[in-house]
Design a protein that fits this description.
- By secondary structure, the protein is an alpha/beta fold.
- It has two domains: 2-162, Alpha/beta knot (3-Layer(aba) Sandwich), CATH 3.40.1280.10; 184-240, tRNA(m1g37)methyltransferase, domain 2 (Trp Operon Repressor, Chain A).
- It has ten helices and ten strands.
- It has helices spanning 10-16, 20-27, 64-73, 94-100, 118-121, 140-153, 161-165, 199-217, 219-227, 232-240, and strands at 2-6, 32-36, 50-51, 61-62, 80-91, 105-109, 115-116, 126-130, 184-185, 188-189.
- It has a five-stranded parallel β-sheet with strand order 2-1-6-5-8, sandwiched between helices.
- α1 (10-16) packs parallel to α6 (140-153), α4 (94-100) packs across α6 and α8 crosses α9.
- The radius of gyration is 22 Å and the shape is elongated.
- The two termini are 43 Å apart.
- Bound molecules: S-adenosylmethionine (SAM).
- The site of S-adenosylmethionine has 20 residues, from β5 and β7.
- S-adenosylmethionine binds next to β5 and β7.
């Protein structure tokens, strides 16, 4: 997977992508990141990339020319998705991450200041994506959220593939609780089943906890889970919990 990020602040992207679990995926060349700075494409003698808004008002607006030229400079692979980050976009979620993980290239455009000249959004083929109903200073954190979440979903991206398979949202359920040593911490004990060595019972307990947690914490997701096809094991657990309709 190749990530190309069009940003006025490449160091934010580069620093994050060199650290921790994601940094390892980059070092192992399972994914690669390339940053493109629109400032390097500005034809203005002062390398300006923003200007005051027509009609007046606060803030500076990102100009078309440096952004169009920066985007055009990126060589596009056939199986590629192009994203423009904006609070007005489609909300990013695990399902979108999964779809994006099947691409060979993701090009991201990050805004800053007051946002884009409307015509930047009109670059053909762009998907507008938001990472939530709040306003960030710039699109870099949003792009990093997508890079991080998508890298986890690429086979080999985070080492053991099953770690991502059992993450929250992967089966329309939140993840079950985890425990590690010690088995008694300030009187809070690890559930006996996890110490039993009975893998079938452990798997059942985990699924049950995931269902109960989702019902308690995310009724919207629980509804989605209830509407999808269930495995034999899930049906049995739902019956045991009196949730089978
Ligand atoms: N004036 C804009 C508005 O009200 O929609 C907000 C501009 S924001 C300060 C600057 C840039 O940060 C945006 O162009 C976008 O790239 C990024 N950004 C801010 N919040 C975001 C979010 N929730 N999701 C994705 N990108 C966001």
């Amino acid at each position: 997977m190749k990530f190309d990020v069009i940003t006025l602040f490449p160091e934010i992207i580069e620093n994050y992508c060199s650290a921790s679990v994601i940094g390892r995926a980059f070092k192992q060349e399972i994914v690669s990141v390339n940053t493109v700075n629109p400032r390097d494409f500005s034809t203005d003698k002062h390398k300006k990339v923003d200007d005051t808004p027509y009609g007046g008002g606060a803030g500076m607006v990102l100009m078309c020319q440096p952004f169009y030229d920066a985007y055009d400079s990126v060589k596009k692979l056939e199986n590629c998705a192009s994203i423009i980050f904006t609070p007005q976009g489609k909300p990013f979620n695990q399902e979108m991450g999964k779809n994006l993980s099947t691409k060979d290239q993701i090009i991201s455009i990050c805004g800053h200041y007051e946002g884009y000249d409307e015509r930047i959004r009109q670059i053909p083929g762009l998907i507008e994506v938001s990472i939530g109903d709040f306003v960030l200073t710039g699109g870099e954190l949003a792009a990093l959220c997508v890079i991080d979440a998508v890298t986890r979903l690429i086979p080999g991206g985070i080492g053991k593939e099953e770690s991502a398979e059992e993450d929250s949202f992967s089966e329309d359920l939140l993840e079950y609780p985890h425990y590690t040593r010690p088995n008694d911490f300030r009187g809070m004990k690890v559930p006996d089943v996890l110490l039993s060595g009975n893998h079938q019972e452990i798997a059942k307990w985990r699924k049950k906890q995931a269902i109960l947690r989702t019902q308690a914490k995310r009724p919207d997701l629980f509804e989605k889970f209830m509407q999808r096809e269930h495995t034999k094991e899930e049906k049995a657990i739902l019956k045991e919990l009196n949730l089978w309709i």
